[in-house]
Amino acid sequence: MTTAIGVVITEHIVTGKLEDQRLTGKLLRYPNDPEEKDALAAMPDSELIDIVAEQIGTLAGEPSTAAIGVAVPGIVRSGVVEESPNVPQLKGTRMAHKLAQALEHRAITAPVYLANDADAIAAGVAATRGRLDKLTRVWTIGNGIGYGRWPYVEGVWEGGHITVSLDPKEKYCGCGGTGHLEGIMGHRAMRLRFLDLEPEEVFANAKRGDLRCREFVDLWHRALAAATASFIHLAGPGRFYFTGKNVAFLELPLLRSHLETMVRMSPLQSFSLEILPPDDETALIGAAVSALRALGQ
Ligand SMILES: [Zn+2]
Predict the structure, then answer these.
(1) What's 93's DSSP letter?
(2) 122 C-alpha to center of ligand 1: Å?
């Protein structure tokens, strides 16, 4: 039996143990209270890494852990968090190395593998559906817009910052770039665009027929269709999954109707679209499975 540990870092930290790629036992969560949203916001990276190490220490044991996978939002390469707008204290942190050091103090020597959170979700979907041999792509729709893919390939893959508009007024992206997908779809970007309305109100008003809000909701779907169509034109059709805390805003029929206007070559039209309710388990399983795969287990 192979055991691995998966960790997900978002607004909170969740850790769980896998036996033969299946979750076993209870998940550990920090902070305990799910209503506490800002617990990690002001925490230095060393303290955050200590909490992760503590959770792993609680779950590790016999049989010994083969690999530890950690999912983090942002650009992650070779065990380093190069950019992480939503957990900024991790920017530049040699996370895999530091966590491995913190674990050594607890007599845990399993290798640590770091994954982008959206990539981890794609890996988790592929693993739980028995599709580890197929291309799986995931959009995470929240404060930022994440793009994840399985199998992992070297690259940046910042799909949320793909350019979907040539309008110079489209400048709400958190990265400062013009015309970006996240500048239209991201939660923060929507608040900047509608200074008088929360994103939830924009979508509710659109349903009631408010013209300005309806136009925006259409733009929101067209932007996602444009980015998805670009990936279909590059890597081919296949399955796309949509998740994240704002996935409830997504209307698949509207997205599909826009996509159909953008993808016209018949060999590319066999794509499928599916909404996944947001959870921590999928990313956690995916982080652990990615770690096992990266280590050739
Ligand atoms: Zn951007």
Answers:
(1) -
(2) 21
37 CA distance to ligand 1 middle (Å): 24
Q: How many whole angstroms separate alpha carbon 101 and alpha carbon 250?
A: 42
Contact 265, 257 (CB under 8 A): no
Distance from the alpha carbon of residue 35 to the mean position of ligand 1, in angstroms: 29
Distance 287 CA to ligand 1 centre (A): 25
- CA 50 to centroid of ligand 1, rounded, Å: 31
What's the whole-number average pLDDT of the chain?
A: 94
Residue 34 pLDDT greater than 90, yes or no? no
Percent of the chain with pLDDT over 70: 100
Element (H, E) at 242: strand 239-243
Answer whether residue 139 shows pLDDT above 70: yes
Instruction: Please tell me the distance from the alpha carbon of residue 21 to that of residue 265, in angstroms, as a whole number.
Output: 38
| Predicted confidence (pLDDT) per residue in 82-134, tens digit | 988 778 889 999 999 999 999 999 999 999 999 999 999 999 999 999 999 99
Question: What is the whole-number distance in angstroms between the Cα of residue 73 and the centre of ligand 1?
Answer: 14
CB atoms within 10 A of CB 189: 23
User: For residue 69, what are the β-bridge partners?
Assistant: 6, 113
- Distance (angstroms) between ligand 1 centre and the Cα of 235 equals 22
Put simply, whether the predicted model's pTM sits higher than 0.90 gets the answer: yes
CA 250-6-101 angle, to 5 degrees, is 130
pLDDT computed for residue 33 by the predictor: 83
Strand partners, 13: 9, 30
Angstrom distance (rounded) from CA 35 to CA 129:
31
Reduce the DSSP state of residue 27 to 3 states and report it. strand
CA 250 / ligand 1 centre spacing (Å): 20
C-alpha 266 – ligand 1 centre gap (Å): 31
